[in-house]
Specification:
Blueprint lengths: L5 E6 L2 E6 L10 H16 L4 E6 L3 E3 L18 H17 L4 E5 L2 E3 L1 H8 L2 E5 L3 E3 L13 H20 L2 E3 H7 L4 E3 L4 H13 L3 H14 L4 H15 L3 H11 L10
Helix pairs in contact: 1-2, 7-8
The chain binds ligand T3D.
The site of ligand T3D has 21 residues, from β6.
């Protein structure tokens, strides 16, 4: 088994990005950040049409590696530096990928690890997985997008409860609350996510990229602004080969064969 902090495999238009420090529950180091940055470039180069993010071993990701010797050592410390240099650009780049990003949360996700799981467009979790807003346990504030995403997905009450207690929730609860798309049996996780990603890779990819932009813009936009954005994006959609194929397939009463263009 490779000891690289991140593994990347691209097959049949689907990229699988695996956080790979199983002994440390895939806690994120500076070396992992550098590997993630390179992996995102490779995913774009490979023109993958769907991306799966998962973790090696029994965990998804335990958040920031609290013992990483490569973290900046300043006195007084500046915990914002690693966010500015690594987390924030990575999470923005992940969100900006113009293809669906699917998280397969195979085990515990803690702190910034939850941020990675929820930066995906669609999050599946194994029933045995849990989500821990661990920040408060070490007396730091939420980062990696958690303070933005949580209230939007589950409302202020539940977000406050999780962020202020640091208590775990299981995957079933996360699904019931709307934090994730779906909880699945542990042993079925990768098959189910793989099948879902394969389905996504055959969708009109450019349209999925535009849907991402619409949904993420809606968090900032008012109703009128969003209507304008929808008009602009529908204009772009109508110029696509996949639109022509979609209409043709409908009229010919057959499934569409989308190429992603
Ligand atoms: O300081 C800053 O830079 C601010 C950081 C902000 C961003 C954040 O992400 S804050 C949140 C950081 N994460 C945590 O606080 C979670 C810490 N981990 C845990 O609470 C527990 O490990 C878990 C609840 C996630 C799982 O518990 P358990 O009992 O299943 O496993 P374990 O035995 O605690 O961990 C297994 C190994 O992974 C162990 O190493 P060892 O003793 O076998 O050599 C443990 O130290 C290591 N590990 C787990 N999490 C981290 C970690 N090592 C470094 N950093 C971690 N975050």
């Amino acid at each position: 088994m490779s000891t690289a902090p991140v593994l990347l495999e691209v097959k049949d238009d689907v990229a699988v990005l695996t956080l790979n420090r199983p002994d440390k529950l895939n806690a994120i180091t500076v070396a992992m950040h550098k590997a993630l940055k390179a992996a995102l470039k490779d995913i774009k180069k490979a023109k993958a049409r769907a991306v799966i993010v998962t973790g090696a071993g029994r965990a998804f990701c335990a958040g920031q590696d609290l013992a990483d010797p490569d973290l900046p050592k300043l006195d007084p410390p500046d915990l914002g530096l690693v966010l500015e240099e690594y987390y924030n650009p990575f999470l923005l780049a992940l969100r900006a990928l113009p293809v669906p990003v699917i998280a397969a949360v195979n085990g515990v996700a803690a702190g910034a690890g939850v941020g990675v799981a929820l930066a995906a467009d669609i999050t599946f979790a194994a029933r045995g997985a849990s989500f821990i807003q661990a920040f408060v346990n070490i007396a730091v504030v939420p980062d990696a997008g958690n303070s933005h995403i949580l209230p939007r997905l589950i409302g202020n009450q539940r977000a406050m409860g999780l962020l202020m207690t640091g208590d775990p929730i299981d995957a079933e609860t996360a699904a019931q609350w709307g934090l994730i798309w779906k909880a699945v049996d542990d042993e079925a996780l990768m098959d189910e996510v793989g099948a879902f990603a394969a389905r996504m890779a055959n969708q009109p990819t450019r349209i999925l990229g535009l849907i991402k932009r619409q949904v993420y813009s809606a968090a900032q936009n008012g109703y009128a602004d969003q209507l304008i954005l929808e008009r602009q994006m529908q204009k772009i959609a109508g110029l696509g080969n996949d639109y022509r194929e979609g209409i043709k397939a409908f009229l010919e009463k057959r499934p569409a064969r989308f190429t992603g263009n």
